[in-house]
Amino acid sequence: MIRSEKGPINDMIQVSRELNPNISVDCVVFGLRRNSLKVILVERSFEVLDGEGEKVSDYKLPGSLVYNDELLDQAAQRVMRELTGLVNIRLERYDILDSLERVHKHLDKIWLESTSGLEINRVVSVAFFGLVNLESDNKYVIDKSARWMDLEETKHLPFDHSEIIQRALLAVQESIRTGDLIFRVLPEKFTIAQLQRAAEVICGVKLDSRNFRKKLKKINFILPLEEKQIKVAHKPARLFGFDQKKYMESKRKKNLF
Amino acid sequence: MIRSEKGPINDMIQVSRELNPNISVDCVVFGLRRNSLKVILVERSFEVLDGEGEKVSDYKLPGSLVYNDELLDQAAQRVMRELTGLVNIRLERYDILDSLERVHKHLDKIWLESTSGLEINRVVSVAFFGLVNLESDNKYVIDKSARWMDLEETKHLPFDHSEIIQRALLAVQESIRTGDLIFRVLPEKFTIAQLQRAAEVICGVKLDSRNFRKKLKKINFILPLEEKQIKVAHKPARLFGFDQKKYMESKRKKNLF
DNA sequence: AATTCTTTGCGTAATATATACGCTAAGTGA
DNA sequence: TCACTTAGCGTATATATTACGCAAAGAATT
Questions:
Q1: B130: exposed, middle or buried (Cβ count in 10 Å: 0-12, 13-18, 19+)
Q2: Surface-to-core class of residue B20, CB atoms within 10 Å of its CB (0-12 exposed, 13-18 middle, 19+ buried)
Q3: A34-62: per-residue pLDDT in tens?
């Protein structure tokens, strides 16, 4: 029926572990560049052996069925490791996809069945998002079969993956506003301008640097350090740090009505 | 092994539909009373037939495995209909429970297996919350095997249901702040005081009525009507309405940084 | 009919937060 | 030394938030 050329999922089936045919995870990992947002996709390249031997080669989100003895978070980490080579990306659940027509395209169904070795009838997928900085020291070099893709190139993906990405972007933007997500794409010591640029690119807005600075000064989990930038062709900026503990405390307070 | 006395889940298995042994839903439906919040639980009453024939009778959240041809939202509605008699409760997903130890108590496992007729190894559960007004005209009369329970009585439930309820309460409070949830527990035409009391009970706070009124006046999807209360032993209050369309529009705008 | 009671609903003043934008300071590189 | 760029402070204005005083409107009571 199908022959997988370098089917990534085939490689990850280990003896004595059972994939659950009903539960999967999909990961939407955004990569921040200076002026754009990328998303990581993996190649799906296979040949349909019935009929005319149609060759298919396209890209999809990294995802997989979940092992029966595996937590969803673990499955998401495994997917990233096995399909892209990235480890320890912080991932968060933001959605559950349960439509009965998720695997409605014939090609998608036979691909899934052949790579898993299971009969697939119903797959409920848990969606995760993540965010990394592609300009940082950690270069996030990924496997050959994976690619950092422009968001514009993700309009026509297999399954419901285009839709998943759209919703992930909204979830990331929301987390930037209210959470600590933005500090994950900053170096440990960062300048206010770096923080601002990251927020601007991810949320697609332009902010006034003077007011932005003012606002940050009264956030108590962003602490000014004694260090400054060096060797920059302008006034060197002060470096700041993110205080995890104080962040956790300030999270508790909620403004009700 | 087990004999179910009036096992509610037994009654709902229909011919020709298959329950999926890996996916379940659990529903946390809060009921608003004048001064307290209740939550709906269903009776679990059965007799273990091995050993000493231990009798068990306790309460749990309404929940069920999901049919293979059923959406999660449909499953949640079915659960409420079949286990409590309530229909058309608005329910929202707020969590996924995937721990491997969810069904760690022996009693819970044999109960689940006997009522479903399936071997249970791994159940990932999707949690829903809902909110209804128990003081409204619609009395929300529920089946005999279900009960509106005080939150304080839900500390030691089977499975991980106590924890699920705690998290549901936080999700409801958050939705009250930002969403339209509160309008579902109000009559179509309501006074500002009614809205305030609902918010106070659900969120557990006390608010200044004069400032509360001021705040609501500039929310453009809460429209003042020409009607007033009658036959109340005090100055009659103006009635207000909720404008779904305007609410949807105002939802789009987000304040970024 | 006058009085009392309760809740509505407007107003005001003090304080805090947000926004727009001017201007100087501090480095590197020419 | 000068030009250039970004950092970082200040100020003025508008908008929100909070605390609280008080009159108005109906029903119930006297």
A1: buried
A2: buried
A3: 888 999 999 998 887 776 778 889 999 99
pLDDT band at A16; cut points 50, 70, 90: low
A26-42 burial string, b = 16+ CB within 10 Å, else e?
bbbbbbbeeeebbbbbb
Which domains are delineated in chain A? 2-178 (3.90.79.10), 188-252 (1.10.10.10)
Residue of B nearest to A215 (CA): B257
Q: What angle do CA B104, B109, B114 make, to 5 degrees?
A: 175
Q: Do B124 and A205 touch (CB under 8 A)?
A: no
DSSP code, position B105: S
Residue B253, pLDDT > 60, answer: no
In which residue are the tokens 């994976």 written? A146
**At residue B114, does pLDDT exceed 80?**
yes
For chain A, the residues whose C-beta falls within 8 A of a C-beta of chain B are: 20, 22-23, 68-69, 71-72, 93, 96, 98-100, 121-122, 124, 126, 173-174, 176-177, 199, 203, 205, 207, 212, 215, 254-257
**Residues packed against strand C, CB within 7 Å:** A 208, 210-211, 214-215, 228, 230-236; B 191-193, 209-211, 213-214, 217, 228, 233-238
Nucleotides of C under 7 A from a protein CB: 5-12, 18-23, 25-29
- Alpha-carbon span B15 to B123, nearest angstrom: 22
Cα–Cα distance between A178 and A188 in angstroms, integer? 19
| C-beta separation of B237 from B193 below 8 A | yes
pLDDT in tens, B194-206: 999 999 999 888 9
- A-to-B residue pairs, Cβ atoms closer than 8 angstroms: 72
